[in-house]
Each structure stands twice: as structure tokens, then as C-alpha cells.
Amino acid sequence: MLVDAEDGLLDGERIRRLVPDWAQASLWFCGPGGFGRALHADFAARGLPARAFHQELFQMR
Q: Matching InterPro entries, A to Z (predicted)?
């Protein structure tokens, strides 16, 4: 769990730093749509295959 005021924000760079073998992994995301799109674009730009990114499709109110 991250508390943004204490730990900073979660982003692709942080995930890659914490998961060294990220390129061989699947990424499962559940959260705000815009954040999911940003993560997907970030990982795709670094070579993660589209089929390796999974996102729950819902809208937060």
C-alpha cells in the first residue's frame, strides 16, 4: 500500500523498479480508467505486449 503524501505516486517506472522481470509478467490493473490507460501506454512503449496488460473495465463515480 502506498500513501501518496508519504510514498509518492505509483507509476510505471516505480513498478518496473520493484518488479525487475516485468517484461515477462502480466500486469493486472483495477482502478481509474485514465490511470489504467496511462499505465498501459507506458508499458506498451517499453515493449510489454498488449495481451499482457489486463484492465477491469468500469467507471468510478
A: FNR_nucleotide-bd
